[in-house]
Design goal:
This protein is mainly α. It contains 4 helices and no strands. Helix content is about 65%, strand content about 0%. The protein is elongated.
């Protein structure tokens, strides 16, 4: 057993076994879009799946930031009392 796992048991943190870890990694791999995850049919290391997942989450954050900025610019260019402005404001919530 790795020292990391034994330390977590000592700290009262629940642990998962290797089969549960493999199942969670497989589920996580299914969430990655096909165009990012080229090797869905073949076995991929857990570290590769985690790395791809982190990269995907980063790209989603960038996309959200970009869209928020575009909405903010659009809101600034519309009449504050217009129906369009109300719709844009509702998207921020």
């Amino acid at each position: 057993m790795s020292s990391r796992r034994s330390r977590s048991r000592q700290a009262g943190v629940s642990t998962i076994n290797d089969a549960q870890m493999a199942e969670l990694i497989a589920k996580l791999q299914q969430l990655i879009p096909h165009d990012i995850n080229q090797s869905k049919s073949s076995k991929v290391s857990a570290s590769k799946v985690l790395q791809e997942t982190c990269n995907y989450i980063r790209s989603l954050h960038r996309e959200v930031d970009d869209l928020s900025e575009k909405l903010s610019e659009l809101l600034n260019s519309t009449d504050a009392d217009s129906a369009q402005a109300a719709i844009i404001r509702s998207l921020f919530m």
